[in-house]
Amino acid sequence: AEAVKTPRIATVASAPAAHAECSPTDLSAAEQSYSTARVLADAGQWSDAIPALERALDSCPEHLASLQLIAFAEMQSKNYGPAARYFQAQIDMQFDGVTANADMNTLRPYGFVLLQLGNWTAAVRVYESILAGEGLGIEDARPSLDLLHTIRNSEATAPGDAIAAAIADALFRPLANSM
Q1: Which residues contact 131 (CB under 8 A, 6 or more apart)?
Q2: How many Cα atoms are found within 13 Å in the side-chain-facing hemisphere of 142?
Q3: Residues 8/13/19/23 CA torsion (nearest 10 deg)
Q4: Given this model, what pLDDT does residue 105 score?
Q5: Tens digit of pLDDT per residue, the chain (179 long)?
Q6: Do 90 and 106 form a contact (C-beta atoms < 8 A)?
Q7: Taking CA 6 as the corner, what is the angle to CA 4 and CA 10, rounded to the nearest 5 degrees?
Q8: Does residue 29 contact residue 53 with C-beta atoms inside 8 Å?
């Protein structure tokens, strides 16, 4: 399944941000697929929502709502690699690739996903972006960032998966779940 998603992510990531528009027919197809996915996501059926979101993005790669929801659906389905790529594609499309310009609803779960992947440096950068910005979640980011710095500076190697999972669940799950 991973190989199938990678080309779609590349297509979405290369779509010009808000400059291109889908044809009315493609936009309609994307909206229908998105609506189906939204119902499934609202019912907590995250992995079932992903194929509908993929169809929406196939129809209209610039369909931002589908891109946002598929990133979150992949995260909720514990498909962290695709989730990270979709979050980055959203940042590329919506915020011209500048992580510091992204909103809290993108940065908070993106940081969680990066932590799950063991990408400590990128997770720190994302949470530093949160602290540099304004909005909900800033007060939650400081203890998480401090702990990440402590872990990164005290360990010769990255902690094992069990430790990373425990840290992520304790610190970042509340951030991701508040979406």
Answers
A1: 138, 141, 142, 145
A2: 6
A3: 0
A4: 83
A5: 333 333 344 444 444 333 358 899 999 999 999 999 999 999 999 999 999 999 999 999 999 999 999 999 999 999 999 999 999 999 999 888 888 788 888 888 999 999 999 998 998 888 888 777 644 455 555 666 666 666 666 554 444 555 555 555 555 555 545 44
A6: yes
A7: 130
A8: no
Query: How is 54-116 classified by DSSP, letter by letter?
Result: HHHHHH-TT-HHHHHHHHHHHHHTT-HHHHHHHHHHHHHHHSTT-GGGS-HHHHHHHHHHHHH
**CA gap 43, 40 in Å, rounded:** 5
For residue 150 the two structure tokens come to 């402590």
Residues 66/75, Cβ–Cβ less than 8 Å: no
Q: Which tokens belong to 164?
A: 């990373």
Q: Which residue has the tokens 């929502």?
A: 49
DSSP state for residue 158 in the 8-state scheme: P
**Token reading at 32:** 């229908």
Chain centroid to CA 154: how far? 28
Q: Which amino acid is at 121?
A: T
